[in-house]
Specification:
The protein is mostly helical and about 220 residues long. The protein has 11 helices and no strands. Helix 2 packs across helix 5 and helix 7 runs antiparallel to helix 9. The relative contact order is 0.11.
Length: about 220
Amino acid sequence: MSNYNIELSLYSRWGVIHTIWGFHMNNNFVNRKDRIIASAIEIISEAGLSSLSTKTLAMKENMSESLLYRYFGGIDEVLVEVVETFTKFDKGIIATLEAKDIPHFDKAMEFTKTLSTYYAGYKEISAIVLNYEELLHNVNTREAMAACLLERMAFMRREFTMAIEEGEIVDTFTPEELTNMVFGTMYRALLNRRLENESKTHEQVSETSLNKFAEVLRIKK
């Protein structure tokens, strides 16, 4: 499935009418600047964040470095766009979930499933998750990266808090602990996919674990 189609499937699932960056390599959908960002993400995925430079990016795009500078002032500007790409659809998904008339625990679980779908469909973007620390130490990307992570955690803690208060789930764990468990599970699934070259997608592995997690926590009524 192309990333453009993944984008449309996310629209369909949530009814969110806003732009998520898609990276279908067809010129009908993206311009040259978008393709440069897509290539930057691929380099990070294939060789790590430290391998991203104007030289490697220009080579991948089959252009001169001087031409690359017509689109971006330097690699730090590229990284800023990469982080914006990674975080772009969070606010829309969160707003949509908050407006849905479903239990708070379901909102939290649906958010994690949506992220898993995104990472499964666009494998390269998941490399950003594995480079959180470096991006948080970069003065150009720190603020946007931190804001994204804090917003995700705040949403999950909020929904877990309400789920406990309204008797949807057991109170064995604190909202903070539950949030850490969920994101830890997702992170580990991403790491395993790279370390072990698992045939199962991140979505399959993560969703299986999270479904078991949900089953243990839910209060049967």
